[in-house]
Amino acid sequence: MSKNNNGGALFVGIVVGGLVGTVTGLLLAPRTGRETRRILKKSADALPELVEDLATSLQLQTDNLSESAQRNWQGTLDRLKDAIAAGVEASQMEMVETPEKREITTNAKAVDKY
């Protein structure tokens, strides 16, 4: 088999294996056909409730994950705002100090000439 068909072969193997297992289980079951059908019907009737419970559980987990992501995102935004504010403040301080530094540097160069 080529590498591209491995997934397809696996899927076919799982389906065939599931069918063989189901048929074998039904043939070797200690119950009569009527009892087996009754149990299968009960299982099928309970399936919508099981799906609803699963959907509810999935919704709760999704909500929890969403809330957690929002908290983490808000924390990241807060840190980013603080970093931007610190950068703005530092650049403003640099602008205030720059004329003095230029004057000192200019005076030092003038003294060095003499």
Q: How many helix segments?
A: 2
Gap between N and C termini, in Å? Answer: 89 Å
Task: Tell me the number of strands.
Answer: 0
- How confident overall, as mean pLDDT? 78
- Strand share of the residues? under 5%
Oligomer: single chain
Task: Walk me through this protein's architecture.
With 114 residues, the protein is mainly α. It has one domain (31-113). It has two helices and no strands. The protein has helices at residues 6-28, 33-113. The model has no long low-confidence stretch (mean pLDDT 78).
List keywords for this structure.
elongated, 114 residues, 2 helices, mainly alpha
Short structural description:
The protein has 114 residues and is mostly helical. The chain has helices at residues 6-28, 33-113. It has one domain.
Which SSEs are present, and which pair or pack?
Elements: H1 6-28, H2 33-113
